[in-house]
Amino acid sequence: MTEPTEESVRSEVRAWLEANWSPDLGLVEWRNKLVDSGWGAPHWPKQWYGRDLPVKFNTIVDDEFARIGAVGVAKAGIRTLAAATILAHGTDFHKEKFLRRILTGEDTWCQLFSEPGSGSDMAGAVTRADRQGNKWVINGQKVWTTSAHKAHWGLLLARANWDVPKHKGLAYFILDMKQPGVQVHPLKQMNYHASFNQVFFTDAIVEPEFLVSDVGDGWTVATTTLMHERRGADALRSWAVGSDRKGRIYDEERAEIATTMEPYKWYPQRAGRVDLVMERAKETGKINDPVIRQEIARLLILSKSAEWTARRARAAQEQGKPQGPEGSLGKLVSSHIARQAARVHTYISGSDALLTGEDGAMNGVIAEILVSVPATSIAGGTDEIQRNIISERVLKMPKEPSVDTNKPFKDVPRNVVAG
Amino acid sequence: MRFSFTPEQDEFRATLRRALEARSPTKEVRRLMATEAGFDPDAWKKLNQELGLTGLHIPEAYGGQGFGFGELGIVLEEMGRALLCAPFFSTAALATTAILNAGTEEQKKALLPSIAAGETTATFAFSESDGGNDASSVSTTATPSGSTYRLDGTKSFVIDGHTADLIVVLARRPGSKGEEGLSFFTVAGNAPGVDRRQLKTMDETRKLARIAFKSAEARLLGEANAGAAPFARTIQQALVCLANEMVGGADRLREDALEYVKMRMQFGRSIASFQTTKNKAADMLVDVELAKSAAYYAAAALDEGDEDLPAVASLAKACASEAYLQTAIHAVQMHGGIGFTWDNDTHLWFKRAKSSEILFGDANEHREKMMQHWTH
């Protein structure tokens, strides 16, 4: 067999699309065709709905889809993390049962990792997984669970052994969310939205074949999920937009995107809306205030230099250079930008920043910025954790002496969670 | 826009870094900064000629190598890192760019080859006693006298002004104001009527001079009364050059402070294991990397003729001003008591950070300039 080249991949996918694509198909019907052909996830293995192509060819395949407006497989949300984790660690049973319906978008997933008592210290999870006969019984609470109320399946990290150190006692399960022992309650945020949920387990059941890791290896599997989450973080944050084309399949895709993106609709405000600053400063006349000009300039310098830093990291990667420090700073810098943007929007709006909703500046958008920005420096790893990661991994500084990694988890002091 | 260095540029940087580490250890910096000239003419000539430094960005037609601001930026960054005591910034980043911007073809052919060859040092005298960096602060006058001119007035804050062989001077037609009537001139450093006094500088590694012209004979450089545009261009280029020099110094300070805290033990453990130290080190990395991105972008913007250059040059300078000084403040703090002593090297860069922060306008001034460009 000859090695695939850019040209061969392009002509092959083009020919297949020309023969099969039709906007009049149903979304799931079309995606099943994609799954069968392997063009929905060309970098996946052949026996699991892919074509074993190197990942670098994905952009060519995407280009060809975009060229004729063909819809792709379901990519948004936690389902992609589920797929990556199952491909890396799942059994054939898991792959058979879940992968196709992930790609078709029929199943929705959620991630059950964070707990009220363990945010940054995720390996300190205390949700219990106890064996009863050959089943697992789950009790405890998870939090910050996006789309839990819609999810069919959950990726669950729970403690199965309390007599070993914290990283060694975890197990990784796939949990059926539609069962009586699972209760989902929305978690209202300081900005009025409720994008996340609290999930309570009361004797929820996991059948034995739904264990993904060996008991004790749950942390290793969770690391795979988290790695893909970090890698995809920018994609998750970017705004998915449906095609404006006409046709049944586009209507169905737009509805899917609207549902998936619903929890993220305040995310642009969370990042500070730097894009609105100049326009707002001009329309309020504050552009002529020398003090505010200085603050705006500080913001623009931050946001431009951050953008150029990201471009440097990408350019170095494209050249095949080893990753430099510039690639690890984006998350922390985005917090600085968001905070400075909130400061600037406050100065620009003045007393209008006291009001919200339809009474507020820009029909409440400015107020939403001011009360959403605090999430930026917390979600996905706090600024403090980011600084530790930078100092330990990039600058090779020593870790703080650890007090909990070598003793049985049952002896580790932990939070008392109100029940 | 270019966002990465080519393998050849990386190799060039590595060669320079090795050379400067060997030729400009801090012992040598301390020796030279205590001299009146501020550099060793023979050693500088040798280093310059070996590496072809002052000819780097001079076009081949004028005896140089024809590289751009990308390469000049690399040289300046490495010199900022090594705190090299040499009249490079004055000669290459100021006088050469001024001659390239203002001079006629004939004048470039006459003046630049000896600069490229490392035989002539030069500087650009534009600021006066108020230290301003704009056309309106120029009061030195140039009066026609036969085929030459007579300069009268006093320039100040002139980098390497007390030693430069050739001085490019910005002066005005008597009675003119603002951007009108400005012209560039060249004067020999040792010409009659040129009284040069070295100023006592806080940053001893960057020498400044006050130069009084009393009917000193000068030659017009380029077109008479058309100096405003080439002056603005020269200042923008100087800002980009300085920003690149500054990020080199900031990165060196950051690395030295990091190395020190990793070695320093208190309370039975390395102080680099305390989160308060680690957080500071992470913040320093962020500051320096963002400032580097801005400085590199500005150099690329110069090479690629970006029309946003006036804003980008000011942005890079403002960003570097804050990053370098903040890094220097953190670096002293991370060293603790020893960081405040003369024998520890941190203060050498701290003072360079301070002088660079102010030179050609501080961060407030350049934030405002950037806003002016982006709002009109």
From TrEMBL, chain A:
Entry keywords, A to Z: FAD, Flavoprotein, Oxidoreductase
Q: Which GO MF terms does the UniProt record name?
A: flavin adenine dinucleotide binding; oxidoreductase activity, acting on the CH-CH group of donors
Using the record, list the residue span of the signal peptide; answer none if the entry has no such feature: none
- Highest taxon of the source? Bacteria
Spell out the InterPro entries in the cross-references. Acyl-CoA_Oxase/DH_mid-dom (IPR006091), Acyl-CoA_Oxase/DH_mid-dom_sf (IPR046373), AcylCo_DH-like_C (IPR036250), AcylCo_DH/oxidase_C (IPR009075), AcylCoA_DH/ox_N (IPR013786), AcylCoA_DH/ox_N_sf (IPR037069), AcylCoA_DH/oxidase_NM_dom_sf (IPR009100), Mycobact_Acyl-CoA_DH (IPR052161)
Q: Which family does it belong to?
A: Belongs to the acyl-CoA dehydrogenase family.
Q: What is this protein called?
A: Acyl-CoA dehydrogenase
* Source species: Enhydrobacter aerosaccus
Automatic annotation (TrEMBL), chain B:
Tell me its cofactors: FAD
- Could you identify this protein by its name? Acyl-CoA dehydrogenase
Which UniProt keywords are given for this protein, alphabetically ordered?
FAD, Flavoprotein, Oxidoreductase
Acyl-CoA dehydrogenase/oxidase N-terminal domain sequence ranges: 6-119
Amino acid composition bias (Polar residues), ranges on this chain: 134-146
Which Gene3D superfamilies does UniProt cross-reference here? Acyl-CoA dehydrogenase/oxidase, N-terminal domain, Butyryl-CoA Dehydrogenase, subunit A, domain 2, Butyryl-CoA Dehydrogenase, subunit A, domain 3
Q: Which organism is it from?
A: Enhydrobacter aerosaccus
| GO MF term set | acyl-CoA dehydrogenase activity; flavin adenine dinucleotide binding
Which CDD domains did the record assign? ACAD (cd00567)
